[in-house]
Specification:
Helix 4 links the parallel strand 4 and strand 5. The chain contains nine helices and twelve strands. The chain has a single domain, classed as NAD(P)-binding Rossmann-like Domain (Rossmann fold, 3-Layer(aba) Sandwich), CATH 3.40.50.720. Strands 2-1-3-4-5-10 form a six-stranded parallel sheet, sandwiched between helices. It has a two-stranded parallel sheet with strand order 6-9. By secondary structure, the protein is of the alpha/beta class. Helix content is about 40%, strand content about 15%.
């Protein structure tokens, strides 16, 4: 068997899933079914998908790995669609982990900063106390626990403030709003680390290769985000700068001025120490990553 990998990516129609699919080639075979094709809450379909991955990988001389990018990410809607959010974010990963365990396939599960309470003053370490304050965060934490307690060879990778060329995200929204002459109010009291999906996808595949060759990190819980931190206001100004628009049109405001159904973490910065300690490549600084990403965003 070569050091190539065959990767099943549930949630393949999402912004991260599509970036993972785009990295196929050079010893990386990617199968990225969308949620309409592979519903993780349907145990039979999940077992079939993992079995098919194993068979295809064996035939191609590749090592099978699952990278789970499927998630219910409608943070506000989760407050009123609790059962559905738990089904996708907790029950789905439990079913997937069981299938991976039974077939001996390693699993990398993507999680979120929302598992923390968001009241920190320094970057969150992987072993800091969790305490999600939203239904979305609660469901994602339940998914983490299901995966790590499944008996599967599994790793959980938390990330934050993800944006990319596909789907809806904050950066693409700011690009659209920059097209008018109106001022834009953006919260300046929430801090985090913007993370480009292409950088994150490359990091996840690097981890997948390590896992497949027996060089996996000892720690099964990792953080992977863009380096550095800013506020949503700071990110919005950076978007305007990249567009050549007047950044002074972006006005700072507080979270209280824009109440939402789900509480947002005031502090979402994740420490990447465990990622780097494992010998994995750190993601670039968020500001330089935004500049690199921009041609694919506009």
């Amino acid at each position: 068997m070569s050091d190539g990998i065959a990767v099943l990516v549930p949630g393949g129609a999402g912004q991260l899933g599509r970036e993972l699919a785009a990295l196929a080639g050079d010893g990386v075979l990617v199968r990225a079914p969308g949620c309409a094709t592979l519903d993780l809450t349907q145990a039979g379909a999940v077992v079939e998908a993992v079995t098919a991955l194993v068979d295809e990988a064996r035939a191609a001389g590749l090592a099978p790995v699952v990278v789970n990018a499927a998630a219910y990410t409608a943070v506000d809607d989760a407050e009123t669609h609790r059962a559905r959010a738990f089904a996708v974010n907790a029950d789905g990963p439990r079913v997937l982990a069981a299938a991976c365990s039974s077939r001996g396939v390693p699993l990398i599960h993507v999680s979120t900063d929302y598992v923390f309470p968001g009241d920190g003053t320094r970057p969150y370490e992987v072993d800091d106390p969790v305490g999600p304050r939203s239904v979305y965060g609660q469901t994602k934490l339940a998914g983490e626990e299901a995966v790590l307690g499944s008996g599967a060879r599994a790793w959980v990778v938390r990330t934050a403030w993800v944006y990319g060329a596909f789907g809806r995200n904050f950066v693409r929204t700011m690009i659209r709003l920059a097209g008018s002459d109106d001022p834009v109010s953006v919260v300046d009291d929430q801090r985090g680390s913007p993370t480009w999906t292409a950088d994150l996808a490359r990091g996840l595949l690097e981890l997948a290769r390590r896992v497949s060759t027996g060089a996996a990190p000892d720690t099964r819980l990792l953080h992977c985000t863009g380096t550095g931190e800013t506020t949503w206001y700071g990110l919005a100004r950076a978007v305007f700068e990249e567009l050549g628009a007047d950044p002074s049109r972006v006005r700072p405001c507080t979270t209280d001025e824009f109440p939402r159904p789900a509480p947002r973490p005031a502090y979402s910065v994740l420490s990447n120490k465990t990622w780097q300690a494992a010998g994995l490549t750190p993601l670039p600084d968020w500001r330089s990553a935004l500049a690199t990403a921009f041609p694919s965003l506009v």
